[in-house]
Predict the structure of Cytochrome c.
Amino acid sequence: MRSKARIGLAMVLAMAIAGAASAATSIKDSKHDLSSGSAATVKGNTDQICVYCHTPHNATQNIPLWNRNNPVATGFTLYSSVSMQNTPVKNGFTTDSISLFCMSCHDGSTALGAAAVHNNPVDQPTGITVADVAGRTSAGHLDGASKYNLTTNLADDHPVNFLVTSGADPNIGTVTGATMKTGSVTNGFPLFKSGRGATTLECGSCHAVHDNTDPPFLRTTMAGSKLCLGCHIK
Ligand code: HEC
Ligand code: HEC
Ligand code: HEC
Ligand code: HEC
């Protein structure tokens, strides 16, 4: 009787833990969890999660305690068009652009681990190794054929790292006061502070890097294009 009750309790606990994990409000076990114990396919040889991107001390960039050696900011081409009401930027990121931080893995050439990680984790003092997975990673970086490799040409991607000015485009929701993020918000989506100003649109305006509740790491669902309609009055 007693042991049966114990098994029952263990099962309830196991289910509760599984339930919590599947709610996926944490980075843990998402594709951005590159730790050795992660459920992700692409991962490295340390069981730390945050170290691939953050460090508690001696960061490469103060905000957000960044632990990566980013690619050269000027090496990117960004979207631009004559119909944009805000001023698009064609050539290069600002060095503090949160989007450049994403591109330190999504450019398809910067290593995920190894020398791209500034401070090594205590359990891997000589550096992080990320094992290659056919079609996904090669030589420790995202593979050329990976759909996650956006390349350094972002002219074919939604504009990023440009200043969003209140009222510049009447079809864009209002830009309001600062949040705990580094900038402000448009209709509830965060804008960031960068060298271009305090309200720049970045990858992180649409993507929640730590939270895969709405895959792929989106700020809200794409059902009915809710994300797009959150900013665009269309
Ligand atoms: C794959 C890279 C990556 C990993 C791994 C990662 N972060 Fe982040 N984190 C970012 C980026 C990029 C930002 C800034 C953009 C943003 O806030 O959306 C950020 C911002 C933050 C912030 C400040 C703003 C916010 O969104 O709350 C905190 C706190 C934070 N991360 C904590 C953590 C912790 C703790 C871990 C490990 C459990 C972790 N991060 C793992 C990339 C990462
Ligand atoms: C430390 C490296 C790293 C950084 C920094 C990083 N990513 Fe990723 N990201 C990855 C890897 C690895 C994958 C999964 C690749 C695979 O499974 O083949 C991924 C996958 C994704 C996906 C697809 C998820 C899915 O379910 O299909 C999105 C979207 C994404 N990243 C967005 C971002 C954004 C936005 C940022 C910056 C805010 C960012 N990433 C920063 C490494 C990174
Ligand atoms: C305007 C919103 C928006 C911005 C800005 C944005 N993304 Fe995305 N991204 C999306 C949406 C929506 C999807 C999912 C598309 C789909 O599957 O319909 C996506 C998908 C992705 C994927 C997965 C690709 C795939 O084929 O599965 C990656 C990786 C990614 N984004 C990275 C980034 C990075 C890095 C940046 C900044 C340079 C960025 N995104 C900026 C909205 C955005
Ligand atoms: C966080 C707010 C935000 C979200 C979410 C968002 N956008 Fe945008 N988008 C903007 C802003 C701001 C501009 C620049 C508008 C301007 O200056 O005219 C823009 C520009 C564009 C442009 C280029 C317009 C031009 O004149 O060249 C297109 C197309 C576009 N967005 C489509 C989308 C789609 C599709 C989605 C959903 C996948 C989306 N956007 C999600 C804020 C957003």
Observations:
- The radius of gyration is 20 Å.
- The chain is about 20% helix and 10% strand.
- The longest helix spans residues 2-23.
